[in-house]
């Protein structure tokens, strides 16, 4: 997905804010010397990698209503970039994903380095996971600090709201990640540990908490506050952002099975191995093909990479045949439509309203 022209949003000021902040931290005399400096460097590299969608959305909204505080907008955009870096560094450990951005993830790279120096496999893996967790902790702390420092001159009500949004976003996303783990399918029966309620609804709720809020809703609302939009407009932007984030996560779930590894920067099939409780899989398990789906999921949890590729191909055919692929595509289009409805009724400034409407149209027509 190209996300229409978001790649054209200028991030040079965001990069400058990140660079200044990290260099200040690296020069701190109470740091951990060369080890601390290298960890900060890895945080900076992760924050600058990928599509940088969250930073671009902050800048899109912040620049939509005439003159604005460029330094505050850059700092908030950088904070959401750091927040994303923190989450993916931790998520790669939780999901045991060894690839990120088309290269070895941080924990995998450090584990390989430790193994090459003669460390046992178990200790090398632990060393890599430890590095990634600590880098994520550092990025999370930095996000709070950079937002606080960068918005010092923003009027108090808006500044306090920006801080509240960031805090609530971290809490929401953490609890969404917890749901994602706790609701994962057990390898023996491909059922969740909590059988109460519709599994498809629980999958949608997880997607909202884990991804939609921090990817679209919070960055857009933060930028809208910096642009001086009214409370009703900020709220509407948040609702539209939530629907856009839902469509985004549902599409990402599809790519986890149907995607091209070269395009998405990591192998497909990992969600099957981890038993991820996605709307796609919950829908398949509610179909007449449930027994076949359970069998493939049970095999995937212990499969090596070659076997996992074969299982993933079989799962693609099964998800298409049982209607789960179509049902997920329908959900994506429905959330994109709801986002367009929110945007249309919000009387947003032209640049922001047009851009979000185009984004909703692109996401909704992806399948």
From TrEMBL:
Pfam families: polyprenyl_synt (PF00348). Its cofactor is Mg(2+). InterPro entries: Isoprenoid_synthase_dom_sf, Polyprenyl_synt, Polyprenyl_synt_CS. The keyword Cell inner membrane does not apply. GO terms for biological process: isoprenoid biosynthetic process. GO terms for molecular function: metal ion binding; prenyltransferase activity. Keywords: Magnesium, Metal-binding, Transferase. The keyword Acyltransferase does not apply. PROSITE patterns: POLYPRENYL_SYNTHASE_2. Belongs to the FPP/GGPP synthase family. This is Geranylgeranyl pyrophosphate synthase. It comes from Brachybacterium muris UCD-AY4.
